[in-house]
Design goal:
Elements: H1 9-14, H2 23-75, E1 106-111, E2 120-125, H3 129-133, E3 138-140, E4 151-156, E5 177-181, E6 185-197, E7 219-227, E8 234-247
Parallel strand pairs: 2-3, 4-7
Antiparallel strand pairs: 1-2, 1-5, 3-4, 5-6, 6-8, 7-8
Length: 260
């Protein structure tokens, strides 16, 4: 049936009423959008961010290594030719003891062949997340020994987020090389064991880890991180024992060879 205005009442009656926007509907859409943003941020922090930050840390460490090599070559005179035979086997020397670095002062890099040839993470003084662990990589516990020094060279790093330098610490095998590179040369430690402790068990930082009132005669390395992943409930602790120091003039040590 037509009307005077030319419209059809039956057609008009079948038209669906306009949907009204409700406060609840808007709030629901906002919550969904916020949830998506949070998920994207978590994905960034737990995966993509680690990849990017990790690559940046390794690139920084590689640049430091190359810089130290160039500085050594520029300052060291050309070797004088002699008839003396080259020493057989790896060249080792008495390890020089470095001064303790200041907070966030970069003094070394860490290389672990088990983690790949591109693993070259800078190390700095202090274990503050904001100044060292988040921005540089691996931090040295103030007051503990320095590389090659008798006692406990104790360090910390993230296991997740900000490049996660110690993400694979649980994959280390007994005897794996842990190499600390400085301007002076390379300090090689050998991995020995893992331990899980509560955050309050600071005995892992003693001169002889977990041994109260025992004088240190051996250089150790202690690496600490959070456990389990994405949690602060415990600490995973990796221990190693000093093996040798290779001076810069001798070239990279055999301990840096790739793990097969």
């Amino acid at each position: 049936m037509a009307t005077a205005g030319g419209g059809d009442l039956r057609t008009r009656s079948r038209r669906r009423p306009r949907r009204r926007t409700s406060v609840i509907g808007v709030l629901g859409e906002l919550l969904i959008t916020a949830g998506v943003i949070v998920l994207l941020y978590v994905a960034w922090q737990l995966w993509l961010g680690d990849v990017i930050y990790g690559a940046q840390r390794n690139a920084m460490g590689q640049e430091l290594s190359e810089q130290w090599q160039q500085e050594y070559e520029a300052s060291d005179p050309a070797p004088v030719a002699t008839d003396e035979p080259e020493p057989a086997g790896p060249v080792t020397a008495e390890p020089p003891i470095l001064p303790e670095p200041g907070d966030a002062e970069i003094f070394a890099t860490m290389r672990i062949p088990r983690f790949g040839s591109d693993y070259v993470v800078p190390m700095a003084g202090g274990v503050s997340p904001a100044r060292t662990l988040d921005t540089i990589g691996i931090g040295h516990y103030p007051g503990t020994s320095m590389p090659g020094e008798p006692g406990n060279f104790a360090v910390a790093a993230h296991r997740t987020t900000f490049g996660a330098p110690f993400n694979r610490i649980a994959e280390l095998h007994v005897g794996d090389a842990i190499v600390v590179e400085t301007r002076a040369g390379w300090y090689t430690y050998r991995f020995r064991s893992l331990e899980y402790v509560t955050p309050k068990e600071v005995e892992v930082l003693l001169p002889v880890p977990q041994a109260m009132d025992v004088p240190a005669g051996t250089p150790y390395i202690t690496m600490t991180s959070c456990s389990p992943k994405f949690s602060l409930a415990e600490r995973i602790v990796g221990y190693g024992v000093f093996e040798s120091f290779t001076p810069m003039h001798a070239g990279p040590p055999a301990s840096l060879q790739a793990v097969t």
